[in-house]
Amino acid sequence: MTVRKNQATLTPDEKRAFVRALLELKRTGVYDRYVNAHNAFLMNDSDFGDRVGHRCPSFLPWHRRFLLDFEGALQRVDPKVSLPYWDWTVDRTPRASLWAADFLGGTGRARDGQVLDGPFAFGAGKWAVTVGVDRRTYLRRDLGAGVRELPTRAELDAVLAMPVYDAAPWNSTSNGFRNALEGWRGANLHNRVHVWIGGHMATAASPNEPAFWLHHAFIDKLWADWQARHPRSPYLPAARTPQVIDLHATMRPWNDVTPADLLDHRRFYTFDTEAPATSGPR
Length: 282
Known about the structure:
Layout: E1 2-4, H1 12-28, H2 30-44, H3 59-77, H4 153-160, H5 177-182, H6 190-197, H7 211-229, E2 269-271
Parallel strand pairs: 1-2
Helix pairs in contact: 1-3, 3-7
């Protein structure tokens, strides 16, 4: 069973293995397929049309499957690698170990945001950006410039206390846990982290930024934490609803995946704070 760990607890060997697997996916072109896919879905999802990966109830199951597919690609490179998660309520400054030169590297330089240190710096020769908003081929970051503070634990706890998963009109104006976590309402959690990192992370092509995976692994964990706190609160909508993915509707781009298939993460992996599942899907 795959175990996803807090990035702050990774050993040096685990960090190196994760980085090596990312670089190998980049070298073979597999990595950029995920960047392209995310870019296309975010650009096409809207409040007033069909929406699958963002601004809608399926934001959480869509990204869960997206991460599962990517983690599988990493494990075909190295079966021991799993996706770490980044708890940004704790590791909340550019000085956190996440941004050290032996892991993801630090912030970009002032004049153009180019990351200059670490394995994903353009100068290292292994991380050319090919999917982006312009022709610049280097990874860009601007930690803490777009917004000064990452979400706090108190802000997160208030969202985790919300008892209802989602509500009509099932978009960025909805009340409910999903929209508050995604960041269109209230404390602006998930979205604020994208803006705090800045650079590529603040665009639809955000998976160009390796921190994307650690951020979304934590978002995925928070969904699991919310489910544990509210075991009688189901995924909504349960019945067929125009322009959004209900419990049993198929999520593009997959042909046979529904939110119902993804409600229990323990079918696929556990987090380092929990035991493996002993029961069926929730």
